[in-house]
Write a structure and sequence with these properties.
CATH topology of the largest domain: Rossmann fold
CATH class of the largest domain: Alpha Beta
CATH superfamily of the largest domain: Flavodoxin domain
Shape: globular
Mean pLDDT: 95
Low-confidence stretches: none
Strand order of the largest sheet: 2-1-3-4-5
Oligomer: single chain
Largest sheet: 5 strands, parallel
Helix content: 40-55%
CATH architecture of the largest domain: 3-Layer(aba) Sandwich
Order of helices and strands: EHEHHHEHEHEHHHH
Number of helices: 10
Number of strands: 5
């Protein structure tokens, strides 16, 4: 297994110590990206990644090497402390640069583990936000570890080990949530609309995703298949 660690903290303290504990439970290779060292410019909202293609992002040379590592890895570990009741600016800026994944999801066979720590509050909300972002990327299953703590001694090693082992042992593809099925069909309907975003249409057609109710690697039960078909029918009528 190849794991990619994305450290959204400018430091290597509480969150990083949890990740170190997680690594002792996983068997594989680890590659680490510390966003503070990547010097990624602030996303300027030019919409080129949406409208033209992510290759046209003015910061493509900074972002693409990280995306390539995401594509190559088997598991993703995202660590982030709580800053002002939200993710750090480092992680938010990186997420802003990957916003086109919302329109063109991928990583349907990958698992992720989210690690969030705080000395105060907001850890559950921040972990949920990162979870939702990764699922919009297409990630199949997201595990969460979040702690409100005053230091390393207040971490629950038993909880860390338990979740890390579940994450490392998980080799199955899980059925997506209804919300994920809905959004898949939102973007599919938009890609097949009468006046689609060119990059979206090309991606969905070239990948063959337009021919499926959800990512073809992931099986849906009859209820979710029916839900997907109904959602797509409604959305196709609504999105002109």
């Amino acid at each position: 297994m190849k794991y990619l660690i994305i450290n959204g903290s400018p430091r290597k303290q509480n969150t990083y110590n949890v990740i170190k504990q997680i690594k002792t439970n996983l068997d594989g290779e680890f590659e680490e990206i510390n966003l503070i060292k990547e010097n990624i410019p602030i996303c300027n909202g030019c919409y080129r990644c949406f409208n033209e293609c992510e290759d046209n992002c003015p910061h493509f040379d900074k972002i693409n090497p990280i995306i390539e590592k995401l594509q190559e890895c088997d598991g993703i570990i995202v660590g982030c402390p709580v800053y002002a009741m939200n993710v750090t600016g480092l992680l938010k800026n990186f997420f802003d640069h990957t916003a086109y994944f919302y329109h063109r999801p991928r990583f349907f066979t990958k698992k992720a583990l989210v690690v969030v720590t705080t000395a105060g509050a907001g850890h559950k909300k921040v972990a949920k936000y990162i979870d939702e972002t990764l699922r919009h990327w297409g990630v199949n299953k997201v595990y969460r570890l979040s702690f409100a703590c005053g230091g390393k001694d207040s971490f629950d090693d038993g909880k860390i080990n338990k979740i890390a082992q579940r994450f490392g042992d998980d080799m199955e593809l899980h059925s997506p949530k209804f919300e994920d099925v809905m959004f898949y069909n939102v973007w599919k309907a938009m890609a097949l609309s009468k006046d689609p975003i060119k990059a979206d249409n090309e991606y969905w057609v070239e990948k063959g995703l337009v021919n499926h109710d959800f990512a073809p690697e992931v099986r849906l039960n009859i209820i979710k298949k029916t839900f997907a078909k109904i959602m797509f029918f409604i959305l196709k009528m609504v999105i002109k």
